[in-house]
Amino acid sequence: MRRTNEDMMCAARFLLATGVLCAALPVAAVNDSKRSPMDPIYIEECGSCHVPYAAEFLPASSWKSLLGKLSEHFKFDAVPDKEHLKPISDYLLKHAGPVTWFGKPPYPEQISRARWFLGVHQNIDEVGWPRIRKMANCGVCHPDAQQGKYNRLIEPATQYPFRPFNER
Could you read off the pLDDT of 119-149 as tens digits, one per residue? Predict the structure, then answer.
């Protein structure tokens, strides 16, 4: 059977997509019931400004770096009370994702730049999604994100356009 260029391109796209998804699966496949329980102090302090992201979403080195510069946390002073910093740090470092999930260093400090995140969210067209506005707005698609649960997904594909990865 003779292969055409179109067949070869289709196969290449499939292999690329499965490779990206396989890189993303370790974090994305963590069932919410198996995810480490969210620390209440972390939820209170960090969740008061943004979604309290699951600790597994970044490796320990990224959490250490972020915690070391909370006075300028994405242009905001996010330094918690002194009695809260240690429990937050302990929680994040204890439950951080293993470096094997994140590829080669340097590891990202933004979850939306992590290899697994980009693989899972590769088909989202931010321009066509006015409700999302930015990738950190997890609750638009993940209604339980504020509780650190991401498996339940609202499927907005019927309301907003997707642009296939190969058409970008």
Answer: 887 777 654 455 666 777 888 888 888 888 8
Structure tokens at 16: 């690329």
Token readout for 29 is 């496949």
pLDDT in tens, 41-87: 999 999 888 889 999 999 999 999 999 999 999 889 999 988 999 99
**Dihedrals phi, psi of 22, to nearest 5 degrees:** -65, -35
φ, ψ of residue 6 to 5 degrees: the values are -65, -40
Q: Find residue 59's DSSP bridge partners.
A: 97
How many Å apart are CA 39 and CA 92, to the nearest integer? Answer: 9
**Phi, psi dihedral angles at 76 (to 5 degrees):** -125, 150
Q: In angstroms, what CA-CA distances link 104 with 5, 54, 56, 68, 108?
A: 33, 21, 17, 22, 10
- pTM score, whole prediction: 0.68
* Residue with token string 């999302």: 132
76 forms bridges with which residues in the sheet?
Answer: 73
> Tokens 């490779």 — which residue?
19
